[in-house]
Amino acid sequence: MSFTSKYIITSSSGKTLLDFDLDFADITFRGQSILFSGSNQIDGFFIRPGLSVDLSNTKGSSDIVRITGKFLDYISHVSLDDSGVLSFTLPDDDATQIIKLTPANTASDKVVFDDYMTTAKAISSSLYLSTRNETLVFGGNAADYLENSTIDTNGNIDLIKLNDGSITWIKVNPKSDKTLQFNDGQISVKAFFSALIIPSLGLSLTELNEETESLPLTENIVTAESSVLPSFINEAASIKAISFDPLGETFSGFGQNITLNISGGNGVDLVY
Q: What pTM did the predictor assign?
C-alpha cells in the first residue's frame, strides 16, 4: 500500500470526527491513500468512496470508523494478514479502495456502514479460514443460511443469515474439514459449498451428533445492528498532514476546533 499522505493527530482533548468529504463534483479525495497516526482519545474517521486509509495505528481508545457503503459489500473483500491487520480491498471504478484496521482485543474500534455496525474485533473473530477440523454451531436452520450465503472474491464462503434489523455472518474456508451444525442437522462445509454453487444438489443434512465436540459461535459471530452514526461536536485537536505525492495532494480542513498544519510536497497541493 503506497501512501500519498500521512495524518498525525498530535494533540486531542476529546472526541473528533475527521470527515473526508469535500462535497465538490470535480474535487474529491478519491484515489488518495492516507496513513494515520491517531490519539489516545476517541478519534472518528468518515471514509468516503475511493479513499484508501491505513487506520491500524489509531492508538488505544475505541475509535469510530464510518465507511460509506454496505456491510455485505465490504466483508466479501475482507482478509486478515499475518500481522493480524484487517484489510478491506474493494474495487472502485478504475482504482481499488483499501481500508486497514487493527482488531484490538479490548476497546476495539467501532465500524459503521450505511446499513449495519459492528467492531473490528468481531469481524476478525468471524474469519474461520484455517483448514482445521472442527464443528461450528449456528443458531437457526441450514436453509436460513443457504438462502443468503455467497462466495467471496477469494473463494471463501460468507455464511449469512438476515434477521429483523440485524445480520449474522462468518467467513469459512470451503477446503477445510469443518462441520457446520444447525438446529435441524449438520453438514460438512464442502457439501454446503457444493449446494451453494449448484443449488439443484440441495442440502443433505445428517442428524446432530450430541457427542461431537463443537465450537459455539455466540461470542464470535457478528451481529450487526442497524447503524446510527453517533453525533460529534469536535473538541480541540491539532493535526499534522504531510504530502508524499510528487504530483500534489488534496487537503481540506475539518471544521471548528480542529487545527490542521500541512507540510506540502514537491507537487502542486490543493488546500480547501
A: 0.88
